[in-house]
């Protein structure tokens, strides 16, 4: 009887070891697949470059007007200058779109709070400016900062309850 129990115990121990080995091998395969995907993504991002349109490609797509041939120095300088203009314009457009999104979010929040603006947070240890006053929320007890002589309604920065 003891021999049968010993055989059963050995069987389950070996079965458990095989399951553990299979689990470890599966995790190693997952790690290898993640590493390969990461390397492929990095390689793809390194290979992606911005191609500045040349005068020749612009001439092919644009209607024919005054054609002038520029020296290599002037064309390189013009390409660098146009790249800076392009990046500057792109940054300006990005800033404008972020401003529009911020204003839209602020307008939606003000509407959702019945026209009341959110107060500013009072951080412990910081001084309160002269044009602001500290007001404690009656619901959550958070300290809020609102303009001193403002007659507009304000909400708590934390819980959005009316102050």
Would you write up a description of this structure?
The strands form 2 sheets. The protein has a 3-stranded antiparallel sheet with strand order 2-4-3, with no helix packed on it. The protein has 163 residues and is mainly alpha-helical. The radius of gyration is 33 Å and the shape is flat. The mean pLDDT is 77. It has helices spanning 2-47, 55-61, 72-112; strands at 117-118, 120-121, 132-136, 143-147, 154-155. It is built from 3 helices and 5 strands, in the order H-H-H-E-E-E-E-E. The relative contact order is 0.06.
Structural class: mainly alpha
How much of the sequence lies in strands comes to 5-15%
Mean pLDDT: 77
Largest sheet: 3 strands, antiparallel
Report helical residue fraction. 55-70%
Euclidean distance between termini CA atoms:
80 Å
The coarse overall form would be flat
Assembly of the depicted chains: single chain
String of helices and strands: HHHEEEEE
- Low-pLDDT parts are none
Total strand count, please? Answer: 5
What is the strand arrangement across the widest sheet? 2-4-3
Separate helix tally: 3
Alpha-carbon Rg, integer = 33 Å
What key phrases describe this protein's structure?
163 residues; single chain; mainly alpha; two-stranded parallel sheet; 5 strands
Give the gist of this structure.
By secondary structure, the protein is mostly helical. The protein contains 3 helices and 5 strands, in the order H-H-H-E-E-E-E-E.
SSE order and pairing:
Blueprint: H1 2-47, H2 55-61, H3 72-112, E1 117-118, E2 120-121, E3 132-136, E4 143-147, E5 154-155
Parallel strand pairs: 1-5
Antiparallel strand pairs: 2-4, 3-4
């Amino acid at each position: 009887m003891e021999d049968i129990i010993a055989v059963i115990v050995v069987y389950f121990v070996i079965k458990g070891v095989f399951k553990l080995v299979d689990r470890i091998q599966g995790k190693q395969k997952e790690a290898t697949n993640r590493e390969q995907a990461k390397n492929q993504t990095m390689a793809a991002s390194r290979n992606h470059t911005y191609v500045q349109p040349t005068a020749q490609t612009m001439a092919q797509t644009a209607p024919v007007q005054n054609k002038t041939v520029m020296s290599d120095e002037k064309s390189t300088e013009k390409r660098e200058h146009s790249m800076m203009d392009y990046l500057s314009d792109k940054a300006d457009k990005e800033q404008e779109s972020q401003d529009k999104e911020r204003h839209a979010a602020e307008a939606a929040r003000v509407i959702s709070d019945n026209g009341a603006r959110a107060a500013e947070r009072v951080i412990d240890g910081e001084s309160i400016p002269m044009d602001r006053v500290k007001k404690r929320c009656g619901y959550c007890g958070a300290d809020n900062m609102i303009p001193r002589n403002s007659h507009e309604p304000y909400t708590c920065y934390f819980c959005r309850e009316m102050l």
